Amino acid sequence: MNVLGIETSCDETGVAVYSTEKGLLAHDLHSQIDLHAVYGGVVPEIASRDHLRRLLPLIRKILSDAGIERPDAIAHTAGPGLVGALMVGGGMAAGLGLAWNCPVVAVHHMEGHLLAPMLEENAPDYPFLALLVSGGHTMLIAVRGIGEYNILGTTLDDAAGEAFDKVAKLLGLGYPGGPELARMAEQGDERAFDFPRPMLKRPGFDFSFSGLKTAVMLAVRKVEEQGDLDSRRADLAASFQRAAVDTLVGRALQAADSENLQRIVVAGGVGANRLLRSEIADRFSGDVYYPRLEFCTDNGAMIALAGALRLADAANADEIRAQARWSLELLSSPGTSIQETATR
User: Fold this and answer.
1) pLDDT given for residue 341 in this prediction
2) 339 pLDDT exceeds 60?
3) Which of 38, 58, 177, 319 lies 20 to 30 angstroms, CA to CA, from 234?
């Protein structure tokens, strides 16, 4: 089966074709960074309009690159995400499903990220602990199989990626803030500022980044009053990154130990952070898995793969599914999932 994957949950248009026999055949991504940079963040209406403009030409290109005329099934991100952007991808999937008379699979965006390491040759076996870190989510999940997810902890306020972006804005860095902050941190002293590691000593496995963000804000104000921001910007970035990474890694190690899991998967946009990757690999006694860097951020390949693994959930293309909020724990094993939570 050749599965066409469509990702339009936010500001990146991703398309791919995954073969259940040969693996990933083709993939490509169009980023909207330049469109949103002037606003300092994603503008939903602009994102939806650009998906409309880019999606069909990208699908034509990917089908050509994969050497097929049409897929056997179509997978699209149905949520969570920006509803308008999701509707573009869902509408395209439904329309093409009707035209090609092929089934459509509604994919959970975070399940796509969680399964992205399966695209690699060295794919993890079940069970494993997933650390999903992005601009909108920070979660620790015990994964026993596809659809068998137990969320152990999540963020009580800001997601890790959101905290990176907000601190980058405080430091006057460019957009997108997270990667800019990580680059700036390479030039700084991570011990220059003693920022808190929130929640590490509390029971459970939840995260909180608002206190860390506030501590950075107060430090930035103090440095600005002293007229030293330009000379201390890299130190602030490095110290914040160290505190955030220590928090993520510390919680992940606690959860893996509690659940007796010997494998950790790190995925999501923040999963591309070099310090996070190196620290968790150095400090964890078991095996650590990551998707390649291009599959850490939103992409069509992870959606095509998730769709291929959930072909038992495929349905006729008679509705458009899009949902802003959608808990991973509402999913179940392929063939038993009744995705009643999706809205038209």
Assistant:
1) 41
2) no
3) 38
